[in-house]
Fold:
Amino acid sequence: MNEKTGAVFSIARDNQPVAGCTISKEVYAGGQDYISYFSLAQETDISAEIYGYHKLLILHEGSMEVYTDKQIWTLNEGEAVLTPTDIPVGMRTGTKAIYTEISIRRNTMNNAVKAGEVFKLAELIPYQDGKIINMDFAHNEKMKFVIMSFDEGTGLAEHAAPGEALIFALDGKGVIGYEGKAYPIQAGENFKFAAGGKHWVKADSRFKMALLMILEG
Structure:
């Protein structure tokens, strides 16, 4: 995965648009699976194209329209959409838009998410007193996407990830322990583990995060 390891960073801050341009950065490609960041400047667009698989679009900053010839979905900061398949789908913005695009194919998808519905990842699962809640959003043989909520004071003991993993902090504040160091993280920030990297999670306050793991060497 083409991203910094062992440091808190922000996809939005690190991928600001360039006037009049659209920019893409591929951070993972494994066969037909991919993860990319996109930056769309004011009044730019990506023309509608047909794909035979879903794309999960997570908007980090700005706003944009995801459109077909019959429907338009408006995404604001923190919102996401799973695109429909086999019809032309495009993206455009009147202001600016910075988002992550993840291919979702050959997968098991959670029934709580429907294609063509705008939602917030942070609102898919609740908090519960004294508990950690885990939702398997989608997975296939190469990738797994999980959403977790932590009540204040809860956490995960140190363990090693079987593959590279990208964290999206969605709500509240937490601490990521990685290879002997502690990294405070809050909503809107990101963190990457290397495969086999020892890490732990502690919730300073109520904390939600998504974890995207690559399940291959």
Q: What stands out?
A: The chain has one helix and 17 strands.
